[in-house]
Hints:
- By secondary structure, this protein is mostly helical.
- The protein is 63% helix and 1% strand.
- It has helices at 23-31, 34-52, 57-83, 92-107, 112-115, 119-165, 173-187, 200-205, 228-233, 236-241, 254-266, and strands at residues 11-12, 15-16.
- Helix 2 crosses helix 6 (119-165), helix 6 (119-165) packs across helix 7 and helix 7 packs across helix 11 (254-266).
- 36% of the residues are buried.
- The chain binds zinc ion (3 copies).
Amino acid sequence: MSGTLNNATIRTGRSFDLGKMNLRQLWIAYLTYPTILLYFALVIASVAAATWFFAGWGPTLVSVLAVILVYPLAWYLLHRYVLHGRVLYKMKWTASLWKRIHFDHHQDPHLLDVLFGAPVTTLPTIAVITIPIGYLIGGWGAAATAFGTGVAITCIYEFFHCIQHLNYKPRSAWIQRMKARHVLHHFHDEDGNFGITSFVVDRVFGSYYLDAKARPRSPTVFNLGYDVKEAQRFPWVMDLTGSPPRDRPDGARPEAKLMRDTSQHAA
Ligand SMILES: [Zn+2]
Ligand SMILES: [Zn+2]
Ligand SMILES: [Zn+2]
């Protein structure tokens, strides 16, 4: 496999396929991806705004720390109760949103286009959570700092999330562990291990599990409960896909093997 992206073999349909890429190709795809470039631009703009309306070093640092602490909790609650909530597909007007922001990722976890959140949903969410926190800490300057911090953390989350679906074994043990937990969320039981880079919130809320032995395999791990029966009652997601929901992704599934060896090495 070549080190560049001029290679049709790393795509499935129009999307990059992380199951067929190496780390170098992932870096190139990530650093040239429009959504990520938009985030980088917004981080720079936030730094400019935070400088222009400078709140002082105290409030600036406090708002960075506050967002670092709040982010994993906010992500956890959204992932567990909204993305896995089994409500959005039941309403016509939210069905396409749910399909794009989580169902498609669980149907085929390797496709980069649907792994990255859509900026029209991520950015308002980040703004609604971070801007009030920053504003209360130190006015508009701190609000800009908080928003920029939220977007920067999102870039980091998206990168680690890519690595979790890249068909390779990370060198460092902590990334191996992180990857193994997220792979379990996708290939064993989706009702647990909701974190991306940290599973502290999962431990607090009792949804953390260490390996495949800890729980039985969930039959809804790829369809999130939107099975053929649900699709007959609530057809909008199926209509948009153009085919019934699948119980497993197409093609080879290197995760089955990966899950075995990462959980062995990580345990
Ligand atoms: Zn994932
Ligand atoms: Zn994968
Ligand atoms: Zn999920």
